[in-house]
């Protein structure tokens, strides 16, 4: 699976969890860029992404992400 495919799927997860069909993710997107993305929804997003891709993130991986691009890279690496 390439980066664009992963980004498309993650974007769909963000839209569903945050209930906002207007969300368009970029590799540089951070939580401050999306009004609905707070600490609670962050956890919901992580869980939904793990279920969707059938992977598990470590706490260290999650804390190291500076933006969506780094999250995508981590998914791709798994």
Main beta-sheet annotation: none
Name of the CATH first level: Mainly Alpha
Q: What's the helical proportion of residues?
A: 55-70%
Q: Structural class from helices and strands? A: mainly alpha
Note poorly predicted spans. Answer: none
Summarize this, please?
This protein has 78 residues and is mainly alpha-helical. 60% of the residues lie in helices and 0% in strands. The chain is globular and about 30 Å long.
Overview of this structure, please?
The longest helix is centred in the N-terminal third of the chain and has 16 residues, at 3-18. It is globular and about 30 Å long. The mean pLDDT is 97. It is built from 4 helices and no strands. Helix 1 (3-18) crosses helix 2 (39-53) and helix 1 crosses helix 4 (68-77). The chain is an all-alpha fold and 78 residues long. The protein has one domain (3-77): ACP-like (Non-ribosomal Peptide Synthetase Peptidyl Carrier Protein, Chain A, Orthogonal Bundle). Helices cover 60% and strands 0% of the residues.
Give the key terms.
78 residues, mainly alpha, Non-ribosomal Peptide Synthetase Peptidyl Carrier Protein, Chain A, globular
